[in-house]
Amino acid sequence: MNTITRLDAVNQPRTVEQLVAGVATSDGAGVRLTRVLTQDLQQRLDPFLMLDVFSSDDPDDYIAGFPDHPHRGFETVTYMLAGRMRHRDSAGHEGLLQSGGVQWMTAGRGVIHSELPEQESGVMEGFQLWLNLPAQHKMITPWYRDIPAAKIPAYATPEGVSVRVIAGSSNGVSGAVVRDATEPVYLDIHLPTGGQFSTPLPATHNAFVYVYRGKVQIGGRIISAGRMAILGNAPDADGIRLDAADPARLILVAGKPLREPIVQYGPFVMNTKEEIYQAISDFREGHLADAAA
Ligand code: FE2
């Protein structure tokens, strides 16, 4: 990991607008998880549609996995902190997602895939984020990439903060994935005792952090582990600044809003009801993932 010499200036850091605890739920064939970014926050956090957090050392909570299921109209980004998950999809992609790795899947016009644990004990921990596609890209050809831990760009600051840049860029370091339409920024940030960190962000990007170890302060507000903080969009805000009294870990996610209608029905996210009816009908008739658009 390279050490940068200094952080880019942030003069007007964002403040916390709202703290969110999320809701315990289960998905797939009975995987227990916490849905932190729920449907009622989709407009506020446009272009992000969902954030699920899973963390358990009890195989009963994860062993059933996510058998074959469809997606259309958006991207899924799975970041594994601990554990092993096998992915197979209708576009012929297969991969093993392991600790510290990311799987970025663009469902586009349609993918049917399974995500199944490849472990019978131990900890399974990570995140699945759903990132919307703009209307003109919702029916594009599916795309998929596994990014192993060693291939995710990372840097350390002189103060000993380490940052993994999954998407976008931060303090001059470009991430593993770049997207033009939504300009997503996805960082995993580890702060040591007394650690301070800042990174510029466009004021118009919607942004949130989710703390998964310890606690951090943003503008005097304390965000504890298991909480998401939605950050304000003050027009003069030029970035984010974090402080940690004790060691802490969090993800920072930000993106450029699409400002298009969002119509979701389960695993399909389109712009109109008619497009949802079409997705359901395509899936039922067995050609959701057909090559012809
Ligand atoms: Fe899925």
Write up this protein.
The protein is 4% helix and 50% strand. By secondary structure, it is mainly beta. The chain has one domain: Jelly Rolls (Sandwich), CATH 2.60.120.10. It has an eight-stranded mixed sheet, with no helix packed on it. Strands 3-4-5-12-7-10-13 form a seven-stranded antiparallel sheet, with no helix packed on it. The longest helix has 12 residues, at 273-284. The termini are far apart. Bound molecules: fe (ii) ion. The site of fe (ii) ion has 6 residues, from strand 6 and strand 11.
Would you kindly provide a brief summary of this structure?
This protein is mainly β and 293 residues long. It contains one helix and 27 strands.
Set down the secondary structure blueprint.
Elements: E1 2-3, E2 16-20, E3 23-27, E4 31-37, E5 48-56, E6 66-71, E7 74-82, E8 84-89, E9 94-98, E10 102-106, E11 111-117, E12 124-132, E13 143-147, E14 154-156, E15 162-167, E16 169-170, E17 173-174, E18 185-191, E19 195-200, E20 206-213, E21 215-218, E22 221-224, E23 227-231, E24 239-244, E25 248-255, E26 263-265, E27 268-270, H1 273-284
Parallel strand pairs: 1-14
Antiparallel strand pairs: 2-23, 3-4, 4-5, 5-12, 6-11, 7-10, 7-12, 8-9, 8-11, 10-13, 14-15, 15-18, 16-17, 18-25, 19-24, 20-23, 20-25, 21-22, 26-27
